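Q: What structure does this chain adopt?
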Amino acid sequence: MSRSARPRTASVQVWQGYLTNRGKRLRDGRFLVHGVRPITRALACEWPLETLVYRLGGPELSGWAREVLDTSRVPRVGLVPELMAELGDGMPELVAVAVSRPGELDDFAPGVPGGPPPVVLVADRPDSPDVLGALIRTADAFGAAGVVITGPGADHHDPRTVRASTGSLFAVPVFRAGGAAQVLAFAERQRRRGIPTRVVLPGGTTGIPVDEYPFDQATVVVVGDERGTWPGTDHLTIPGAAATIGATAAATVALYEMARQQHRDYRP
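A:
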């Protein structure tokens, strides 16, 4: 199914709102996807896409965009260039309108007793969509079972987050939590399921060196430049003179050391 739109339409105004209005994204359960890798990954992961919006007229669409339009079964809408420009990212040739997949952390139960220990990455109060997207990409790269975002920080459906994740948002379950208490309750539920689980905070100035910590259990890794209070957790240090190396770097170091100790094949 395909149709073209030349004058401004109600749909275009709604889609434009998804660029900057978090409330509209949440209310409608929709968000925009820009870029070759994110759209390709969304299709490969069979993420529910409501519409593919493509540019009418010149310049000619790329071979990639034409192939996506020709091979996917997602309904299509063509817009004149001046309307496409209002959907962000300069003059995109293709934008996907994606449907949110709601999920509750209280229902998340990764792993099985006696099986490989699952890893969950927690982004505590992230204030940057770019950093949040990079954390989701890091979690995907190291085979994490899921990502949890605490507090009122950056939105994982923000177009900047989606692009920064390079499509990993569509491959890793992402949940939101009110704060530390909900995440710690998740870890306790895992323990009651017979999956021993530790909660660690890497990247601080005090604690156990990350390369000396025994990653022999399921692990919840909490990162954030301004982390809140996390009682009963293990603090890990990363050697070096810097007081902090940032959330993304801390997550990468911890997840790599975990994979190294467990001799896991963490390749996607």
